[in-house]
Amino acid sequence: MNTLESIFSRKSVRSYSGNLTEYELKTILKAAYASPIGRALYENVHLTVITNQDLLDKIDKNAAAFFRNPDIHPLYNAPVYIVVSAKLSNPADNVGFSNCAIIVENMALAAVEMGLGACHIWGATIALNQNEEILKELNLPEGFTPCSGIILGKTAEVYSEREIPENRIQTAYIK
Predict the structure, then answer these.
(1) What is the pLDDT of residue 173?
(2) Deepest of 55, 87, 90, 130, by most Cβ within 10 A of its Cβ?
(3) Is residue 51 situated within a structural domain?
(4) pLDDT per residue as tens digits for the range 35-69
(5) Which domain holds residue 41?
């Protein structure tokens, strides 16, 4: 699969059948490390790879409570959740949030290429920031805030190119 095929095939996978191999996880992380970061300040981003089932369950329940629906599973029983954090200069630090989103998308595209399931995780990440107890368990460096995340795992779902409507996003041309 080439880059454009990966982009046109990417989707949110919400069903997982198994864990990643060490090679798969290292490849996904290498895709994260290849991400462009504003002003090359790589020291302002941090990845937390969570595979501990007890912590995953705690994060999942915390997010369900945040959404006031105890019956949902916002991490979709995925075996890996990578939290992407940034050292934000202020609560609206566009560069910090953009860096984190780019890292997640790089990992998602790598997952597509490898036939692995992946889904951007925003709600559970927001819920993390509301729970000091769970935040402490992440052992984040001082000054870092979870901004985005991705869940990963083996899946039975198959990626295929989607039809992308050209008018999906309003576009203005200035000539």
Answers:
(1) 94
(2) 87
(3) yes
(4) 999 999 999 999 999 999 999 999 999 999 999 99
(5) 3-8+20-153
Q: Which amino acid is at 69?
A: N
pTM for this one?
Answer: 0.95
Give the model's pLDDT for residue 2: 87
Q: What CATH number is attached to the domain comprising 38?
A: 3.40.109.10
For residue 52, is it left (φ>0), alpha (ψ between -120 and 50) or beta? beta
Q: Count of domains in the chain?
A: 1
Task: Assess if residue 56 is contained within a domain.
Answer: yes
